């Protein structure tokens, strides 16, 4: 970290500002350094929120979904990657400035009603001249859309609401979201939601398969400059470069945050009103350091839970959906088995810090109740720049290595007060050979020394899969944390399975709702 010297506003303006074709056009060489300069100057001024379009805030969810962008108005339809936009309304009433970078010019796009199919009487006839779009989405011709209701569509990534964005691979559908920055998620004061206020999108070459997007972030506590390099495919890679400036100290700083939904799994008690076996966008939190890989099964707790995992040398973290079996969800419309995983891989050393997992109670499947992010051990001071780089891999399953993965967890009851029976499946190419040679063993630990663990059994269920089963006498009045890892020759050969058996309480009916979202 260090102070950035003024990048200045001394751009070489080569032409006067002209208004043509509904776009405000300015000619100068625009790059990431210009966005950093804007963020630095914005941080030196008092915070001023984006104005709200009050007359559009009354739209209901169904009314907003009835507004469709006209496909014939798609920007760059003959290129591999092209753009469509979202109209303001419903919860998305703070619009953003969207500009296109092409041929050395910056073209600012103005909102045009004619680009959308809007049901009669839904939109007011007059809107402020400065109104922009709510957000945009990137589409790819390589995703091969068709008319089947279960086929993947051609959308690659969507930026919509606060600083939220989400992507999906070519054979998946949208699920969890990423955010630019999380501030005071669990804090004595209300959570702060930064907003993107401007985007600059570089027009790709005709045969290009990647897209560059610049973004400017603003909030009462911080500003930020971003560069997103988006490459679609079966897995979408989003390379992020970010620089933050802080107006004031924050209580809890969350870097590279993710938001997802977990209601219940096959190892949880199913609510009586829900016939489906499992409902979740992500089933586990994965964390990789230099010496270990940890898998934490997610939960829908009775009270808010926050778990902090200190790490000195971070290799990556993410929210993962490993269960891809339709019959474990049995939902034709929601297709939870097709939701993407997201793996965050730092580029360069982030230094010491802690990966943080937050679980919030939810009574339904419509709320994001899971958050994961990185907290640096030494938060930046106001007036100084904080820089980082990382890659988000959508459809990523985590680090590629020889350790076996946890692929399934089953439990009899997920609460203390009675014995809990577990069955954990590990999958890896070496496991069948190790267990046949009687070289494979399991190491079990709990946060309460002396907790009885019995009926421990390790057996093969396939050539590359073994099942660890055991019973824990969880009679303690407080939550119990259990860890298990497979070892061979005294060394771990699998991820560390990490699980929390919580104290049984009545389900919480009120959820603190998150703002924004895509």
Question: Care to describe what's here?
Answer:
The structure is a single chain. The protein is mainly beta. It has 3 helices and 35 strands. The chain has 2 domains: 18-123 and 130-394, Beta-galactosidase, Chain A, domain 5, CATH 2.70.98.10; 405-501, Immunoglobulins (Immunoglobulin-like, Sandwich). It has helices at 32-43, 61-65, 431-436, and strands at 18-20, 23-27, 68-69, 81-86, 97-102, 105-109, 116-117, 135-140, 155-160, 164-167, 177-179, 181-183, 195-202, 211-218, 222-231, 236-246, 253-260, 262-264, 279-280, 284-289, 293-297, 305-311, 314-320, 342-346, 353-359, 370-376, 385-394, 405-411, 418-427, 440-446, 453-462, 465-474, 480-488, 491-492, 496-501. It has a 17-stranded mixed sheet that branches. Strands 4, 8, 9, 10, 11, 12, 17, 22, 25 and 26 form a 10-stranded antiparallel sheet that branches. The chain is globular, with a radius of gyration of 24 Å. It starts with 17 loop residues before the first strand and ends in a 17-residue tail after the last strand. The model is unreliable at 1-22, 147-152 and 505-518 (pLDDT under 50).
